[in-house]
Every structure is written in C-alpha cells, then in structure tokens.
Predict the structure.
Amino acid sequence: MNRHTRLRLKKVLAYLAVGAILGLTGCASGKKNTQPRPSVLGKLPFVHKMTVQQGNIVTEEMIDRLELGMTRSQVRFLLGTPMLTDLFHTNRWDYTYTIRRAHDKMATTRLTLLFEADRLVEVQGDLRPNPDRAAQRQPADLLVPVPDWEDDRGLFARFLLDPESESARSAQRTLR
C-alpha cells in the first residue's frame, strides 16, 4: 500500500469511529423522563395559568334527579352523552370531569352508571344521589329577560328591502 492509500484508510476509520460513538451515545440506555419539566416561571404567583376543564360537568342537582329504573334516554337527557362508553361493557357509562385551576392541583370527579335491560340499576363514583338534599332544594323560577326588538338592519335592508317604510319613501323622494 502506498502512503496515500494508508492516509485515506485512516480517515475512513476515524470517520467510522466518530460515527459509531455518536450513534451509540444517541442510543444510551437509562430511565427517560416522559413528563415535561415545568418551567421555573410557572411557579411564580404572578404568571397567568389558564383554567382547563375537560369532560362532562355533572352537578349535585343533576345527580339528585337520577332515579334507579330510568331508561338510557332519560339519563342521557339529564346528564348528557357520556364521555366514555366502553364497547366491551355497553351497560356501563362513565362520566369523568377534570378541572385544573391556575396553580392548584387537578380535581377529578367520576361517575359510573350501570344499566341492565336498558334501565339504570346502580350509581357509582364520587357523587351519589341524595333524596334528602333533593327535597331541601327549592325549585328556582327561571326568568329569561328578552330585550325589546330594535331595528338594527343595515342601510340596504332598511331602504331597499322594505319599500313601505317611511324612511324608504323619504329617501326615494329625495332621489327624484
């Protein structure tokens, strides 16, 4: 071998050695942290963190209206469609609600309903129906204020689409 070939062979071996070292370093074994590290700034009290809500909001009033023997459609009307329905356990509905407020820990509320022959037979979870609490609750009158109608149509709609209006007639007189 001549000198030029040996020099070239040394370069190739050096590149292979560096490549092998870099490749093996990337495949280093060890426990990897899959959770992202929270920022140091996130712990400061003046940094805004959004409230994050997920799942079905289920209140005590809604739970107190539940009665054993209700059909699936009645329960769906009362509580809404469940977030979790299991294909293998079609008689089980899971309502899960999580909320994380600003710097607080996440709060989770779980409710599981079990059906047999399309009828509610069991309620499990953090909230349970309480007939005493339901009896103490006063029915609230629902008043919805309805504002008076105001003519907020655009200029085109007022003049051209409603030719019987007084403003449309006066505008037509001025154009003539």
User: Anything to note?
Assistant: Residues 48-136 form a domain with the Beta-lactamase Inhibitory Protein; Chain:B, domain 1 fold (CATH 3.30.1450). The chain has six helices and five strands. The two ends are 107 Å apart (CA to CA).
